[in-house]
Amino acid sequence: LRQARIASEHFNSVRSLSKSLLTEIDSSAAAGPGNIKTRTLIAQRSIEYLDKLAHNAGDDPALMMELADAYKLAGSIQGNRNRPNIGDYEGAMTSFRKALELRRRVEQIKPSLTNRQEIPLTAAEAARVFPGSKESIALAAETVAVAESLARENAGKFRLPLANAYFTNGYLHAMLEEPEAGIPSFDRARELFVEMKRGKNN
Is the dihedral of CA 162, 167, 168, 173 positive or negative? Predict the structure, then answer.
């Protein structure tokens, strides 16, 4: 019993440390000049801790969703094309893949709308890392399909993942120099963002 308690305390300590590294410490490092090396080291250490946690997570949906959030944040730090990042795009894809794998596993074990809406949001970020690759095109298609399904089954809800999905689809077409194919997606994304803004103001 004592060994189990010590193991649990160690697990929670590592969990807390990885979260602190990715949020508080990285945010502080991001504010300073010449911070790429520092942020790279933070991301590497955080992912090492996350990998250890994931190895021992079992089939606990709550923990798996928490790990998915952390991997997504790590991927964003490594290579989110729409934010300042450290330029580790291969590493970003690895982190996003781990986040998506955990989300999909949760849907098999204990499906929920909270978890399901994160799949298109995470897939959209991943799709924008290497626009034009076969994986990105597949991720963009999954993003739209899951987001449309969520919106269809829950009228008036989940506009954000749907808007993000259309924006990502348009972005990929733009990167492929296919503007005419991308315009309808950008238009639909804009409509959804306007609807969300009006909803907040009413």
Answer: positive
